Amino acid sequence: MARTSGRRLAAVAALLTAVGLTSACGEGTEPADAAKNPGTATSAAAGEPAQRTEPLTAAELRPALLTAEQAVGFEITGSSARDGAAEETSYDAEETVSPDACRPVRDATKGDGEETAAAQSTMYRGKGALAPRSTNLLSYSEEAARTRMAQLREALGTCDRFRFSNALGKAAVTSEVLDAPDLGDDTLRYRTLSRLDEGGFAWKLVTAVRVGGVIATMDVQEVTGPLSPERLATFKPEPGADEEVIARLVENVTDAQDG
To answer: pLDDT tens string for the chain (259 positions)?
Structure first.
């Protein structure tokens, strides 16, 4: 894993955990036999490209994560990958979302127990930056990926306000749907603001792109203490700085699907 700044992580880790903004795939290793089972079907007609029929494995997802050469202007601080769904933690089990129909907005960057593999990385916009970018790749059958994106779209249509509660606190959340770039097979973008009952705020900007059976998300996080509305607005994450790397990430996933 790349070297990280302990001082920077210590400054934000507690608040990120309190509002559930951190995500991880777990310590995954690439299976030795993954390359022998790429999950593609032989084309029936000569000269036609083979069509993928199986979800990508962790070994196929991990190379689709952004590299240091691709993420120009950013510092990648770590990555991981796993096959199968993540084990539910006690923290996940204790969290409630009200209304529950808004859970897809809250959990868009997480696995839902139906994914077959996942890969994740974290990066910052230059050394000393405090706002992390979390990239998450979730592999499904194409039908399951379509369903999950549809659930997120439906939730965004009705969940402009909701609340969540977990072992570390409670928060009221407002969300707004933003214009999404024309990437992949389906793209959604939205921004949320969590107002923590204990004081402080957490912005989150999420871009979710489906490419076949893979859902790629990038979320930008800004956590602050108590601020005036005018000061708070200056921390609102905007997508412009990330458009190039998001597009490159989608290209990587597309190549992995075609491979």
So the answer is: 433 444 333 444 444 444 554 444 444 433 333 333 334 333 334 444 455 668 999 999 999 999 999 999 999 999 999 999 887 665 556 889 999 999 999 999 998 889 999 999 999 987 777 889 999 999 999 999 999 999 999 999 999 999 999 887 899 999 999 999 999 999 999 999 999 988 899 999 999 999 999 999 999 999 988 999 899 999 999 988 899 999 999 999 999 998 7
pTM of the model: 0.81
Read off the amino acid at residue 25.
Answer: C
- Cis peptide leading into residue 99 (ω within 30°): yes
State the DSSP string of the chain. -----HHHHHHHHHHHHHTT------S----TTGGG---EEPPSSTTSPPEE-SPPPHHHHGGGSPPTTTSTT-EEEEEEEEESPPPPPHHHHH-EEESGGGHHHHTTTS--S--SEEEEEEEESSTT---EEEEEEEE--HHHHHHHHHHHHHHHHH-SEEEEEETTEEEEEEEEE------SSEEEEEEEEEEETTS-EEEEEEEEEEETTEEEEEEEEEEESS--HHHHHTT---SGGGHHHHHHHHHHHHHHHH-
Token representation of residue 87: 């084990």
